[in-house]
Amino acid sequence: MTNPLRHRPIDTLSPDIPLDRIGETLASFYDSLVAEGVPEHLAALVRKVRQSEAGEPAAAPVAQLQRIALVVEDNREVRVLAEALLEETELAVVGCDSAEAALAVLQARGGDVALVFADVRLAGEMDGLQLAHAVATLWPRARLVVTSGHCVGRPEIPVEAVFIQKPWRAFDVLVEAERAVGGSAPPIR
Description:
Elements: H1 19-35, H2 40-53, E1 68-72, H3 76-86, E2 92-96, H4 99-109, E3 113-119, H5 128-138, E4 143-148, E5 162-165, H6 170-182
Parallel strand pairs: 1-2, 1-3, 3-4, 4-5
Helix pairs in contact: 1-2, 2-4, 4-5
């Protein structure tokens, strides 16, 4: 099967293209993309776009509109510590041990996620850098914090992300949570 992207002119993305149009374009390529081996988490996102176009009800009921801090860390003790710290803020806290689990939360409640606090090394197929790029692209209004015990260069993380070296200080995490809650959402690029 041929790639439909190779036979169509590709315009460069510009800030004036609405996100729903991007979603519609992705949905129109869905069958060809799946045939060429798109990762399941991206295929699930495209299926969700198709469901919303068909007028199916949203996955999250209105009662779940509290803003969320998503902690993505495979070390249980570190995740529990970060969750306990963030529970002191006005954010609801959801912990995940893998990027795949975090993407499931983002697919269901992405509009409610104010902060994604993710380690670079995670359980599962995806690492935290791949997750960070997905969040920056698909949920650009979420504040993105990447953390690691190893030095990570700026070219490896999205420009929208803040990097906090491990061991992180509670104060630094709380400052980022406050920025996620109190500040205006970052502009969509």
